[in-house]
TrEMBL record:
<dbReference type="InterPro" id="IPR007848">
    <property type="entry name" value="Small_mtfrase_dom"/>
</dbReference>
<keyword id="KW-0489">Methyltransferase</keyword>
<dbReference type="GO" id="GO:0032259">
    <property type="term" value="P:methylation"/>
</dbReference>
<dbReference type="InterPro" id="IPR029063">
    <property type="entry name" value="SAM-dependent_MTases_sf"/>
</dbReference>
<dbReference type="Pfam" id="PF05175">
    <property type="entry name" value="MTS"/>
</dbReference>
<dbReference type="InterPro" id="IPR046977">
    <property type="entry name" value="RsmC/RlmG"/>
</dbReference>
<dbReference type="GO" id="GO:0008168">
    <property type="term" value="F:methyltransferase activity"/>
</dbReference>
<protein>
    <submittedName>
        <fullName>Methyltransferase</fullName>
    </submittedName>
</protein>
<keyword id="KW-0808">Transferase</keyword>
<feature type="domain" description="Methyltransferase small">
    <location>
        <begin position="27"/>
        <end position="195"/>
    </location>
</feature>
Length: 200
């Protein structure tokens, strides 16, 4: 069976390479590998998210959900030098790469790569950032989003980028129906940027 980027343990050979990305005005070189999401470049949806949403205000606890090799988590930690950033993924190779990329950027002390069950239960997030794994299927996607949205701190916000052709508009409606007010804040290159606000 071929690897998916949401495989826990990719079986493909771990072939490394580097990709360049410019995020919030800074240049980054990230190490990527086979068996992880968008290994050849910064994913277009991620690029839209990072271009359309300003860097966070400093401080707080932030979640990068589905971190891949860690470009969002690393950039968040660089831009917000007082923030603690949790970088969650199901793919162990992706988490290894995230740790490597955080170290290269000098933010390894504040970027915490973790499997889904590796985040302490008492951690609450001021912000969630995600280019969610739509291809895991709607039931699993909904379960994942509800799990993490429930851990937003009062007044917290979540930023999602979702392809229009992958159901962004229906997801926006569904989130609102679940009690999470959701607005579209941007639309570019076939992607929607959605902002969810915690109500508790």
């Amino acid at each position: 069976m071929a690897d998916h980027y949401f495989s826990a343990e990719p079986t493909s050979a771990d072939v490394r390479r580097t990709v360049q990305a410019r995020i919030w005005g800074r240049e980054y070189t990230f190490t990527t590998a086979t068996g992880v999401f968008s290994r050849d470049r910064l994913d277009l949806g991620t690029s839209v998210l990072l271009r359309e949403v300003p860097a966070p205000a400093d401080g707080g606890t932030i979640l990068d959900l589905g971190t891949g090799y860690g470009p969002i988590a690393v950039a968040l930690a660089v831009e917000a030098p007082e923030a603690e950033v949790w970088a969650v993924d199901v793919n162990n190779r992706a988490l290894e790469l995230t740790a490597e990329n955080a170290k290269a950027a000098g933010v390894e002390a504040r970027v915490h790569p973790a499997l889904t069950d590796g985040v302490p239960e008492d951690v609450r997030f001021d912000e969630i950032w995600s280019n969610p794994a739509i291809h895991i299927g709607k039931p699993e996607l909904h379960k994942m989003l509800l799990h993490w949205l429930a851990r937003l701190a009062p007044g917290g916000v979540a930023w999602f980028v979702v392809g229009k052709n992958l159901g962004a508009d229906s997801l926006q409606r569904w989130l609102t129906e679940q009690g999470y007010p959701c607005e579209r804040t941007a639309s570019a290159k076939g992607f929607r940027v959605l902002k969810v606000t915690a109500t508790n």
